[in-house]
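Hi L.,

As promised, Sulfonate transport system permease protein:
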Amino acid sequence: MTELSLKAPAVTKVPGAESSGTREREVFLPRDARRRTPLRTLRERLRWPLGIYTTPVAILIAWEILARTGVVSKTYAPAPTSIVRSATALWQQGVLGPDLAISLQRAGIGLAIGLTVGIVTGVLGGLLRSGEYLFNGLVQVLNTIPLLAVLPLMIVWFGIDELTKVLLISFGAGVPMYLNLFAAIRGVDQRLIEMARTTGAGTWRLVTRVLVPGALPGFLVGLRFSLAYSVLGLVAAETINADKGLGFLITQGQTYLQTNQVFVGLVIYSLLGLLADQFVRALERVLLRWRPSYEAS
């Protein structure tokens, strides 16, 4: 008969742990709670030297080679270096700077409005039953409506001025923030809430010490989606009836068959999305230092 061998779980001894009698106290920690060794970090750096940028950089290099060798026509997909030269020329001509500034202004105002509405309604819906009945059904309906489907109606209601573009961005940013924040608050462990109540914690202490830290990961997920959808809303708003901004730059490039100019706008949109993701990652490293998380091998 074959014997079954059971491997004991990994044990990490905490420095300075007190001894109980002659036996040393041993603390079982998950693998994710241990520090990375320098050797492991070095191996990861050698394997993925650019981290999350490894694949995008590899695609750019392959794109450059294919464009230079003529495999990919420059009319349809110019080389990345050619796009960079076009962006530099547009900046020196005083075209790209003002268009980028107006796009950032639109995105900033719309994002601020959307996040404010999403956070306020998400907190009310998560904490109060009446807030759930008041907002949840409406937001679930709005969540199924695409941004491009809302745009014609907003043009009919508000015209083609800046208000329509800002509201479209706000719509894209507010809905995911509400959904994720509502789910995060309702997903806080009930046992933690009961434990806080048994220790005599009031409503304010319960919210600040239990609900806010427990809902913080979900809030950051909602922030990531809100930033991404605000960029999508910016794209949708600026490509229709815009006379300035990155969308107008792309439309002009399409009209006059300037493919480089179209790619300049697309690259800037993608960089805005990448910067938004890196911003949320930085917030996670600062705000969620207390929470051990899984580290992929």
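Confidence is low (pLDDT under 50) at residues 1-34.

Thanks again for sending the construct details.

K.
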